[in-house]
Amino acid sequence: MWWIIWTALVLGALALLAWLGWRVWMKAKALAAAAREASELAARIDEAALAEGIGGIDHRPGPLGEPETLEVAVATRERIAEEREFARRRRLDRAVTRWRDAKIIS
């Protein structure tokens, strides 16, 4: 009696595995087709941009791409980098002081 139950369970598991594998295969094929279409579209856009004489587009942050927003963004990035470096050095100095007080280093 138990061999019938186990056989049914194994066959059910194999059927489920086959069904899941088939679904994954179909989704992968659809994804590959969509990627191929996107690649062809990107190639057509690049060809059209070159035909129009549009070279590399200069990316600038901001809603309208103003050069001023780029300057502000660069200044902000530099300020944040300096603040992080200062904080890192402060932590390192505190750690070295603790280690010297504990006579871990000389």
Q: Mean pLDDT across all residues, rounded?
A: 88
Element-level helix/strand string: HH
Helix content: over 70%
Query: How many beta-strand runs?
Result: 0
Uncertain regions spanning at least 5 consecutive residues: none
Distance between the termini: 78 Å
- Choose one word for the global shape: flat
Number of domains: 2
- Alpha-beta classification: mainly alpha
Main sheet properties: none
Tally of contiguous helical segments:
2
Radius of gyration, in Å, reads: 31 Å
Proportion of beta-strand residues: under 5%
Detailed description of the structure:
The protein has 2 domains: 1-57; 60-106. The mean pLDDT is 88. The protein has 2 helices and no strands. The relative contact order is 0.04. The radius of gyration is 31 Å and the shape is flat. Helix content is 81%, strand content 0%. It has 106 residues and is mostly helical.
Give a quick rundown of the structure.
The chain has helices at 2-52, 67-101. The protein is mainly α and 106 residues long. The chain is flat.
How do the helices and strands line up, and which of them pair or pack?
Elements: H1 2-52, H2 67-101
What features would you highlight for this structure?
single chain; 106 residues; mainly alpha
